[in-house]
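Thread: heme C complex, take 2
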Amino acid sequence: MKRFLWHAAITLALLGVGALVFITAGFAPISAAAGHWPVTRELLHFAMERGVSTRSLGIEAPALDEPWLARKGAGHYAAACMPCHGAPGVAQPLVPRRMTPKPPFLPRTLAAGEMSREELFWVVKHGIKYTAMPAWTSERRDDEVWAMVAFLERLPELSPSEYRWLAFGGTDAGPGDCAGCHGERGEGNAAYPRIAGLDAAYLAATLDAFASGRRQSGIMQPVAAALGEGERQRLASHFAALDATAPVADAEVDAGSVERGRRLAFQGAGMRRIPACVECHGPDRSERNRMYPDIAGQHPDYLALQLRLFARGGRGGTRYAHLMERAAAGLEPGEIRDLAAYYASLPPGS
Ligand code: HEC
Ligand code: HEC
Ligand code: HEC
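Output below.
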């Protein structure tokens, strides 16, 4: 028995040395052009599937039925994922077809429905090591990753024109263009904020914050980081000069909620250190710091989302963002809905 163990140990050591010599001499197969042997491909894919399945245990999907979630995923998909995975009516580009492993053409492979919501979430958030599949740019925006999952679930059934509508909102914009997401005149919609008519100083500082990662968003960070500083300045002046029209309301306004929000915005809640929002955001304040954004007439879903991010902490932003994190820290979910409903009900610029 002892002798057998000795032999086994020596054989293993020799194999190890052999592998080291093989790799050091540069013989390890690394050509992407050669692809994998079928057995390697199956083994790696099996390892990936098992890894994703195990690691996505314990993740619980939120409700994903808001229709604008898929829209939000689609704009980013067109800019960041389509170049590897293709899209309805858009053939997979040539370069990723030469990758090993090859990125799947998702509109077809997802149709099999083999990946659960939780598994899709895990893959999109973390990416897959040893493949080109990247992780989500921001580690703090699970809400955005879920928006992408909402889109991926609809992807297999989308016609090319439905896909184009979701990704570019009926504009002629190309992938990553401001207009495709924020609207032709920057007017915004349920998925994306209005940027027309905001102060140029706030817009420029916000684009800088996205570019440097001081404001977290896996969708806006790559867009802003791809622009030079001069371009960010120019875009800020451009959108600041456009007329601020409120995005088309798509939800019924609850008058009671608006009234409760109005009261809280004017009075705050001193006992819980919630300040009066009007001190910084108006309405009815003539002098305002240019870095305190105009939130009147912004879409209620966007306002509520931002308030939740501030309340949780870590939303980031310009060098004034800490003021807002303090202001939102004590807000209850119901109060967030009321405040969002109130400010959304005001005309922009009030
Ligand atoms: C640079 C190329 C590249 C980009 C960009 C990319 N992916 Fe991937 N993706 C891959 C590769 C390669 C795989 C396959 C990994 C494997 O087979 O193990 C993959 C796998 C996936 C899978 C698992 C599919 C399956 O059937 O196993 C999903 C889902 C996915 N990607 C979604 C996305 C999304 C969403 C984006 C954009 C945020 C994205 N990918 C961006 C290369 C890319
Ligand atoms: C793929 C979609 C997409 C594209 C393209 C895009 N944006 Fe955005 N943008 C978003 C999303 C989503 C947000 C909200 C981010 C968040 O949740 O914090 C946002 C937020 C912003 C904000 C912050 C608004 C505020 O009230 O704080 C500005 C400013 C902005 N975008 C400017 C631009 C400009 C300028 C361009 C073109 C260079 C652009 N965006 C392109 C999706 C996009
Ligand atoms: C002391 C001043 C101050 C007070 C008080 C304040 N805010 Fe803010 N708020 C800011 C600043 C500054 C920002 C911009 C943060 C950044 O992105 O740098 C902001 C951002 C926001 C945003 C995000 C806007 C966007 O376009 O992304 C919302 C929503 C908001 N505030 C709502 C409120 C509400 C509701 C209240 C009352 C509970 C409130 N704020 C109280 C200063 C304030």
